[in-house]
Specification:
423 residues, alpha/beta, Urease, subunit C, domain 1, TIM Barrel, 8-stranded parallel beta sheet, 34% helix, globular, binds zinc ion
């Protein structure tokens, strides 16, 4: 039976213009074009949005017997006057890893460096060790649990990186586990991040050679990921190694999204733009010239404010710089052992409460904009509400859409529809 979503408050459709394309600058806060006032309803058929129109018109057309909130002709969802926003799109997560490094915060607070923590058996190598020893079944279950948490916070499309295996066998295991997580609450799109760090017991050159001659061909052959990612930072993968890996991936038909300029400006964003990467993520320290270049090359700048937040660092000026210059940008969670949030509303709260970003701009940065980097691998464009689009929809607990990022620590979501079904 078709489904009628009625009694809605504001509806943030975000679907002005071409829905596959991102929005920038003042387009992101154009309420007249992006938001419908209350009094509208949505008719959903077989998981697809069939019609968005005034409530009276839709009731007359599809539920003429409607009375007392009931109809025998369509299923009814009462939004109780609450606002409606698109399903959220998290384009940067390290979804699968195991272990617990929460004791490291106190070490950091006591002045221990990343290297010193590593010498004491902590840091990424600890996560790699425990992730390598986990079974695939365990990882799939863990993934299911984490997807539920993302879903409770309104996420309906999520990118998931490997990267805590750092060997042929365990990187493949992580990607296979991602592909086995049921996609009943959320679309899940895998990215290979074998180039997250260097494993113990191998030289850097040996490992890069392994990535190019063993890991990547296996990933491409078995269609285990759509993108590759490289941790391009001084001390990890340099510009040359990053370019080598991305070019080898391209030959295998894989696109790229890169970790760049998180700690310093190493021209990582400029390289991502030159290589035509779908996105360049972190970009905290990128220079202005690189940001302009990225925009021209359609390389999305993805900010991950949760990471500087948990490290006690400044959130930076990059987001505001993008808005002022009409450059495309997105926000994502960067869920990882140090930054354990799968809540985009929380991340957007950092952008709005701490950086003064308009809640509507933050919403575009967590829906339509990140979706534009992932849509190529989905049947329909996600990230906005439009006729013919997927019924991935959140009903908030408030009549105002701005509420969506004003409940840090609590979910603002009343109900979520994924492909037209209540999650
Ligand atoms: Zn990351």
């Amino acid at each position: 039976m078709d489904l009628l979503l009625y009694n809605a408050g504001e509806i943030a459709t975000l679907s002005h213009g071409e829905v596959s394309k991102p929005l920038s600058g003042i387009e992101m806060v154009d309420r007249e074009k992006l938001v419908l006032d209350s009094g509208n309803a949505i008719l959903i058929s077989k998981g697809i949005i069939r019609k968005i129109s005034s409530q009276e018109e839709l009731i007359q057309e599809f539920a003429p017997d409607f009375s007392d909130g009931k109809s025998n002709l369509v299923d009814i969802i009462d939004a109780h006057g609450n606002a409606i926003i698109p399903g959220l799109v998290d384009c940067h997560t390290h979804l699968l890893w195991t272990g617990d490094r929460s004791n490291e915060m106190n070490m950091r607070q006591n002045g221990l460096s990343y290297q010193e923590i590593s010498i004491r058996g902590g840091g990424i190598s600890r996560t790699v060790e425990s992730t390598r020893s986990a079974t695939k079944k365990y990882l799939v279950n863990l993934g299911k649990h984490r997807i539920s948490q993302a879903s409770m916070n309104g996420t309906t499309t999520l990118e998931a990186k490997s990267g805590y295996g750092l060997s042929v066998e365990s990187e493949i295991k992580l990607l296979e586990a991602s592909s086995e997580i049921p996609q009943d609450k959320c679309n899940l799109l895998p990215t290979w991040l074998g180039a997250h760090d260097f494993p113990k017991g191998k030289s850097k050159d040996e490992y890069v050679e392994e990535l190019i001659s063993e890991q990547l061909p296996l990933v491409a052959e078995n269609k285990l990921a759509n993108w590759v990612d490289v941790f391009c930072e001084p001390g990890w993968y340099d510009l040359e190694q990053t370019e080598l890996i991305v070019k080898a991936s391209k030959e295998l038909g894989l696109k790229s999204r890169l970790h760049v300029d998180e700690f310093v400006d190493s021209n990582g964003l400029a390289l991502a733009a030159e290589l035509g990467s779908s996105s360049a993520d972190h970009v905290g320290f990128s220079n202005t010239e690189s940001r302009a270049k990225a925009h021209e090359s359609n390389t999305m700048q993805v900010f991950l404010p949760g990471t500087p937040y948990v490290l006690g660092k400044n959130l930076g000026d990059g987001i505001n710089e993008c808005i002022e210059n009409n450059w495309n940008f997105s926000l994502a969670t960067d869920f990882n052992p140090n930054c354990q949030t799968l809540s985009l509303p929380f991340v957007a709260s950092l952008a709005t409460h701490r950086l003064g970003i308009d809640p509507l701009a933050a919403l575009v940065a967590c829906t339509r904009n990140p979706a534009s980097t992932l849509n190529s691998e989905l049947k329909l464009n996600v990230g906005s509400i439009y006729e013919g689009g997927p019924a991935d929809i959140n009903i908030l607990k408030s009549e105002y859409l701005d509420y969506w990022c004003q409940t840090p620590g609590l979910s603002p979501i009343e109900k979520t529809l994924f492909s037209g079904s209540l999650v």
